[in-house]
Specification:
Helix content is about 15%, strand content about 50%. It has about 140 residues and is α+β, with helices and mostly antiparallel strands. It has a domain of about 25 residues. Strands 1, 2, 3, 4, 5, 6 and 7 form a seven-stranded mixed β-sheet that branches. The longest helix is centred in the middle third of the chain and has 13 residues. The chain starts with a strand and ends in a 5-residue tail after the last helix.
Length: about 140
Amino acid sequence: MKTRTIVACLINKGNEYLFIKQNKKGGAYPDTLHIPGGGLEENETPDEAIIREVEEEVGITIKNLIGIGFDWDILPYKGEETLLIFLQYTAELDQGEAKPSSDAKSVSWINKADLALANHNPASVKFLKRLGLLP
C-alpha cells in the first residue's frame, strides 16, 4: 500500500474558516470541502510544507501556526489504495485575499455558525469535531 503524508491547516479570519473545493482528478474525497493543505515534499518540514501549500493553493500567508495532531485514512487516491497520514494545524489569516489556484476550484470562508451545514470530507469532519467546531 502506498503512503502519503498530507499537511492541512484550518485557517480562521475572525469567526470564519477557510475551505476549498479541489480541482484534482482522482484526488481524495471528491466533491467535498477540504481544509487547505497538500503533500509533504522531500527535505521539507511539516511547518514549511503547510506554509508553502497555503500560499500555493489560496495565495495567502498565515500566522500563529499551531500543530494540533494527526489522523489517517485509507482510500483510493489517484487510482491506488493509499494510506493518507494527515498532519493537522490551525492558523490565522496574516495577509492576502484567498483566491482559487490550479489546485483549488473554489475557496470559501464559512462562518462558525454555518460549519455544520457544509459538505465536509470525512477527515475534515473528524478534525472539526476534535476542535469542538462540530457536534
